[in-house]
């Protein structure tokens, strides 16, 4: 604030300029900048010294971007809490003037800072935990859950004088800490209520048994194991428990969180952590939770830091809501160009101190990383080369999909089902469901290279019509990453290719007509390599390349030849459609579109037509004009907004009609009754007549919800490929650095002030 009481910007001049490469955001490509979350004191010496130390990254970031112009965000997240981002942006607080983004909560930071882990969270729900204590405990559990990823495993146990799993379905086991399971735990934790007296011994023994069973059976992460004890006090003697289950090897770390202002049991709680290679923290307010939970990550990172291992990690795909001032929400079609551009995977590695005097403490300085748009990976398989029903996809080492065209809305009886909300936890088996033996998934998760043929049914026309195809799958691993790449071609595609010769002049003339545009999500020319080309649309790039104005552009010659041919051949259609509009009754509008699995909506606006290399999408028997389809859209048939239904675990009968069957009948069982149906072909047509008995009501909602199916699905552990490295133990680790009152203070200075004040009062 200046002398006149006006707020001023700190840090001097910081010019921003809109940049096409960074989604048209205003950025500074000559400098990185620093963000500090509101809950971290930005004048702390650790923050200021870290900011000064990391200034050297400016030149590194700029040099990286100059060498590889396809790079996006580069960043360094400090263990102290500050975040350095390149290119620099303007950070905008929310309406309460709070900047809540904390880099240490992000998957790329957590996965790079620690190895995979098995976590059992023990929470005290005895009567003494009522009120604010229980609120703090719940927030602590949720914060711990937020630090877990798909390579981690977890369970949550509430205890009083008996042990209670918050999810009875997960009794005695660990479940993968994917987004679905973490959110499920959070909902159950909110329902916890306090009562009774705390007896933690039974719960502690149960936790050790779960972890020991997972280790013995080859389940879980097979790496770090830890118990998180959240309580307001512990009067029992735990030494016998640790002697039986954990000493002398101490394979399981125990982290303790003392909840509330009462410090009566602090020594007991700290003793538990310090004698089991853990860390003790005291949480008295909700504001303390975030910083104190983060401490366990730094303890788990010690073996890796002492070994000086720079493991490179890749995260699962996330829609980049990132650190920016706005949020980007997932739409219904997550595989369009706009969506893939924002769908990112992050590659990161740890940064640590190499000072010999602090070696045993294993001091993690932070994590450095960059984002990789999945669009860059998917460009390896241009869509126009894959045919109308071909596609490419990516999966992680856990079988989760990074990118797949079948993550689209589902329809039942014309009603749209909401897509699975957690895009990054959709398993390959949920998309490629014809692979009933999981042969494709197993091979890809194991990192194998091979081929597979499957008979599949593709849904078209909003799920109303099936298409029977024989698909050939080609797959391989992507070296030095946890990802596998797959490509699907419909059998027969590529046996014939149609080429039409038109002159560049003729093709350009028709390509630049106002009634035509090309699909901007297709890459005709690479515009991201040279910064001068980034503002060009694909159509502009094509024109400038073909006219010789930009000869250095890298363009796909075959695709350009095909799109020029299509532009010439389809040029007469505008006059044809105009005539139809003039003769059509009322306000009807004819709107053309290609018939491919990618076109779920008519790409029509003001009767303009779109072409995008459609020639390569056709089978040998098809022609350009036969593929273009007229869609009549009158006021009576305008698309209405339908009510979204959330998918649930429900079973109902489904029947697939075989055209070789002229007549058949069967029954549908509906609880205590059943109804008959008869189906008969209508001669000389593509119609069938279906007659259904009406005296037994079989609506979808009447089918019983199968809780067992849901339980088995949630705790099932499909084949997965574990990360190659694990850092769970180092003999030189300093176990005495296990927390305490001074250890969690804002600074040593404040700690000494507290001690001095205490002595003065005495």
UniProtKB/TrEMBL annotation:
<keyword id="KW-0109">Calcium transport</keyword>
<dbReference type="InterPro" id="IPR013608">
    <property type="entry name" value="VWA_N"/>
</dbReference>
<keyword id="KW-0813">Transport</keyword>
<dbReference type="GO" id="GO:0005245">
    <property type="term" value="F:voltage-gated calcium channel activity"/>
</dbReference>
<keyword id="KW-1133">Transmembrane helix</keyword>
<dbReference type="InterPro" id="IPR002035">
    <property type="entry name" value="VWF_A"/>
</dbReference>
<dbReference type="InterPro" id="IPR051173">
    <property type="entry name" value="Ca_channel_alpha-2/delta"/>
</dbReference>
<keyword id="KW-0479">Metal-binding</keyword>
<dbReference type="GO" id="GO:0046872">
    <property type="term" value="F:metal ion binding"/>
</dbReference>
<dbReference type="Pfam" id="PF08473">
    <property type="entry name" value="VGCC_alpha2"/>
</dbReference>
<comment type="similarity">
    <text>Belongs to the calcium channel subunit alpha-2/delta family.</text>
</comment>
<keyword id="KW-0325">Glycoprotein</keyword>
<keyword id="KW-0106">Calcium</keyword>
<feature type="domain" description="VWFA">
    <location>
        <begin position="118"/>
        <end position="300"/>
    </location>
</feature>
<keyword id="KW-0732">Signal</keyword>
<keyword id="KW-0812">Transmembrane</keyword>
<dbReference type="Pfam" id="PF13768">
    <property type="entry name" value="VWA_3"/>
</dbReference>
<dbReference type="GO" id="GO:0005891">
    <property type="term" value="C:voltage-gated calcium channel complex"/>
</dbReference>
<keyword id="KW-0472">Membrane</keyword>
<keyword id="KW-1015">Disulfide bond</keyword>
<keyword id="KW-0107">Calcium channel</keyword>
<keyword id="KW-0851">Voltage-gated channel</keyword>
<protein>
    <submittedName>
        <fullName>Calcium channel, voltage-dependent, alpha 2/delta subunit 4b</fullName>
    </submittedName>
</protein>
<keyword id="KW-0407">Ion channel</keyword>
<keyword id="KW-0406">Ion transport</keyword>
<dbReference type="InterPro" id="IPR036465">
    <property type="entry name" value="vWFA_dom_sf"/>
</dbReference>
<dbReference type="InterPro" id="IPR013680">
    <property type="entry name" value="VDCC_a2/dsu"/>
</dbReference>
<dbReference type="Pfam" id="PF08399">
    <property type="entry name" value="VWA_N"/>
</dbReference>
